[in-house]
Amino acid sequence: MRVGIGHDTHRLVEGRPLLLGGVRVEHARGLAGHSDADIVLHALTDALLGAAGLGDIGDAYPDTDPAYKDADSRYFLQETRARLNRAGYRVVNVDVIVFAQEPKLGPVKACIRSSLAELLGLELDAVNVKAKTGERVGHIGRAEAMACQAIALIERID
Length: 158
Ligand code: MG
Prior knowledge:
This protein is α+β, with helices and mostly antiparallel strands and 158 residues long. It has five helices and seven strands. It is globular, with a radius of gyration of 15 Å.
């Protein structure tokens, strides 16, 4: 068994949709980025790459590559999962924490969980989603940005 961690931060701006774990969340602002800026999918992709010793999302899907402009980040996670399978691993479970002052994520946590379970081909109980505010301090608390931390356990298929 092997474990990996991931982290991602993106700025909140006007005029962008807010995507978290592949779920469109109603909010006045969204996350800025080269791709769709889905912090949950980016942090999880990094956790999986890390667990398998495969580097990071910037190596795998460079944000200088025009192919990934406004990319649907579900592709990054699913392609990484396939890469792990080819390398002889399967995902055991994942856990993520989303840091956002607003909107309240309580009502959408279950949707994000289902979305991640589907993308990873896991049972619901192998996926956990938590949400924290920034306690109104720092870049998260002032709602200038959102962040996500993820951890993933993988095991050798044999
Ligand atoms: Mg990112």
